[in-house]
Amino acid sequence: MVMICPSMLSADFTALGDDLRAVESAGADCIHWDIMDGRFVDVITFGAHVIAAHRRLSSLRFDVHLMVENPEKHIMSFVEAGADAIIVHPESTAHLHKVLTQIKNFGKSAGVALNPATSVDCLKYCADLIDIVLVMSVNPGSSGQKFILSQLRKIEQLRREFPKTAEICVDGGINAETASLCVQNGADSLVTGSYLFKSQDYAVAIQNLKNCKKNQ
Ligand code: DX5
Ligand code: ZN
Predict the structure, then answer these.
(1) Catalytic residue at 29?
(2) Among 6, 21, 138, 162, which residue has the fewest nearby CB atoms (within 10 Å)?
(3) Catalytic pick from 34, 63, 131, 188?
(4) Domains parsed from the chain with CATH numbers
C-alpha cells in the first residue's frame, strides 16, 4: 500500500506538535519537513532546531526535503536533529555525488528531488547512492499548487528504469484523484500538505489517499 507523508508546511504553525501527533495517530507513515532558505526558493521556512524539537514527539520516519543552496553545509545539523532521510535538489549543489555520499556516511537514507523540468538523467551516475527519488509535481516553494500532469511520465520512467530498491515519492498537488494517477504510474509514497491539513478528519483523508488505487 502507498505510504503517506504529511508535509508539516501546511500544518498549524502555532501547534506543530499537536498536528504532528494528530497525523501520526491518523495513520501517517512518515513526516515530510520542507526546509526553504529564501535563496534556492523565495520562502524561508524553518531549520534544524524545529526538527530536533519535534523528534522526541514521534517515532515516525522524518524526511527532510532541503530546498536550500549548498545543502552540504547543513547535512550534519539535520542528522543531529534526528532526520532519517535527507533529500536534496541537484540544482542546489555543484557536488551531488559528494553530498549524497555525505548523507550515506551518516547512515541515513539519501534522496534526490527532481524539479518538474529536471530529467531523470542526472541520477544515472549516482544511482547506487539513492534511496529515494522525490518527483516534484509542482515547482518547489509553496503548498497548495496544482499538480503538473507531465510528471506522471517521469514517475513511470523511474519505475521502469530505476533500481527497484529506490522509493519513488511524489510531492505537490496530491489529492485523491492525483494520488490514484501517481500510484497507477508506480509511486511508492505521496507527500500531502494542503489536502490533508485542510480536511475535517485527518484519518479519513489519509485513508482516502491510501485507498486511491481501488477507488478508480
Ligand atoms: C513544495 C513542497 C511540498 C508542499 C506540498 O515546495 O515541497 O512538500 O508542501 O504541499 P501540497 O500537498 O499542498 O502541494
Ligand atoms: Zn517537499
Answers:
(1) no
(2) 21
(3) 34
(4) 3-209 (3.20.20.70)
**What does pTM read for this prediction?**
0.97
3-state secondary structure of 7: strand
Q: Which long-range contacts (CB under 8 A, 24 or more apart) does 93-99 make?
A: 96/122, 96/126, 97/125, 97/126, 97/129, 98/72, 99/71, 99/72, 99/75
Active site residue 34: yes
- CA of 9 from ligand 1 middle (Å) equals 7
Gap between the Cα atoms of 135 and 151, Å rounded = 7
pLDDT in tens, 41-67: 999 999 999 999 999 999 999 999 999
* Ligand nearest to the backbone CA of 45: 1
Sheet strands side by side (includes 132-136): 3-6, 189-192, 167-171, 132-136, 109-114, 85-88, 61-67, 30-36
Look at ligand 1, atom 12, and give the residue with the nearest C-alpha: 193
Interhelix angle 176-184/202-210, nearest 10 degrees: 30
